[in-house]
Design goal:
7-stranded mixed beta sheet; about 375 residues; 12 helices; 6-stranded mixed beta sheet; FAD/NAD(P)-binding domain; binds flavin-adenine dinucleotide
Length: about 375
């Protein structure tokens, strides 16, 4: 059986491991972090994510859709909160019965790693996860990954028939391919950053309606809240870095900012939690990345955020990454596991799709920013950014 080496055991790397384990390939996954199933606290991005059709289809192909969906919270509409703290506007996502699902990133990642290992146990050579192994670079001609074994303090070369770069937006594999002839690459950091907060259950119940995507659009800044299965809500504020610096830089300022702009959310978040969060964390940046090709020398493929990191305003980054896994798996079947032919075809067809969804995400970012100014909502002007 052919061997696939996967850089990164994040969402896309772990799902790829499931796909290839199912095919019976020899699978090795090299992950920089320790095993998240044993970590107390996992630092990093968004706590929960919206899983939609693309992502569900890919999970279905490895038999995980129902299990994952059952562990999430269905969201059937957007619920827009006005600045008066009382008026709500409901916008259904689709027809009755249609919904997206709010799922916990860590749980999803853990389930996929465990499932990949299980596939491996009863089939063929199996899946080996190597945690605390940092990929340094790739030799795409030879199909070799150079990996730093963090605990051992040495480096090893890993040879494989296929190398999948699923090592995220700041991919080390992609970085080492920068001089590949005609490799196109663009990266854009947007003016907005984000901070995550938390709403706790109230009397052991959800403090807000759970089955909707809560949105507090306020022109250039927005608050969102997605329910978790443990009855908490993950709340995210997206705002320009300039605004974080001007309006949320002291305890007093951040409290009055939330009180004034999100009065109903402020009550549920609580002053202490807001202050404590803003003292502890800095706003995180958001980047959009496009590149072409995604395949190199018939041996290496960029996937997920390594190929197409996008701003999160369309909720499609993970979903598109999951779709990458499904598309690759189907193409390998179509081309009888001929890796160079598959990679060539994948790159030629998938780059266009990746660029399109990336553009849609950026379009939605610009749309969301203007939405409020253009339509119903009158913003209390608490600051002047002119
Ligand atoms: P990552 O999740 O970044 O995983 C990369 C993995 O590679 C990590 O485990 C990392 O430790 C590892 N790694 C990195 N470097 C190395 C190295 N050198 N060697 C070995 N391992 C390495 N998407 C949605 O579909 N729906 C949403 O609702 C949504 N909401 C979002 C909200 C926010 C605020 C943000 C920032 C993103 C959101 N996304 C959403 C996008 C989604 O998070 C990403 O698209 C998704 O995480 C990409 O998965 P990935 O596996 O490609 O990369």
């Amino acid at each position: 059986m052919p061997k696939v080496a996967i850089a990164g055991a994040g969402l896309v790397g772990a799902l790829n491991a499931c796909f290839f384990a199912q095919k019976g390939w020899d699978v090795e996954v090299y992950e920089f972090r320790p095993d998240i199933r044993q970590m107390e606290h996992v630092p990093g991005r968004s706590i929960n994510l919206a899983l939609s059709f693309r992502g569900k289809s890919a999970l279905e192909a490895v038999g995980l859709k129902d299990y994952i969906v059952n562990q999430g919270v269905e969201l059937s509409a957007r619920l827009i909160h006005d600045i008066d703290g009382e008026t709500l506007h409901r916008q259904p996502y689709g027809q009755p019965g249609e919904h997206i699902v709010s799922i916990n990133r860590r749980h999803l990642n853990e389930v996929m790693i465990t499932e990949a290992e299980k596939f491996g146990n009863h089939k063929f050579n199996g899946v080996k996860f190597f945690f605390q192994h940092k990929v340094i670079k790739v030799d795409s001609r030879k199909g070799i990954l150079l990996v730093n074994r963090i605990k051992e303090g040495d480096q090893v070369e890993v040879e494989a028939d296929l190398i999948l770069a699923c090592d995220g937006a700041h991919s080390a594999v992609r970085r080492s391919l920068m001089t590949f002839p005609l490799f196109q690459f663009s990266q854009e950091y947007i003016a907005h950053g984000y901070v995550e907060l938390n709403i706790l259950p109230k009397n052991d119940k959800f403090a807000l309606e759970p089955n909707v995507f809560h949105l507090w659009p306020r022109g250039d800044f927005t608050l969102i809240a997605l329910a978790n299965i443990d009855k908490t809500f993950t709340v995210t504020i997206f705002a320009p870095f300039e605004l974080f610096e001007k309006e949320m830089s002291t305890e007093q300022k951040v409290v009055s900012f939330f009180k004034c702009n999100f009065p109903d959310a402020f009550e549920l978040l609580g002053e202490r939690h807001i202050v404590e969060t803003f003292n502890r964390v800095r706003p995180l940046p958001l980047v959009s990345i496009k590149c072409e090709p995604h395949a190199f020398h018939g041996k290496v493929l960029l996937m997920g955020d390594a190929a197409h990191a996008m701003v999160p305003f369309y909720g499609q980054g993970m979903n598109a990454g999951f779709e990458d896994c499904l598309v690759l798996s189907e193409l390998l079947d179509k081309f009888n596991d001929n890796i160079p032919t598959t990679l060539d075809y994948y790159s030629k067809t998938r780059c266009k799709d990746a660029h399109a969804i990336n553009d849609l995400a950026m379009y939605n970012y610009n749309e969301l920013k203007d939405l409020v100014n253009k339509t119903l909502y009158k913003i209390r002007k608490t600051f002047d950014l002119s």
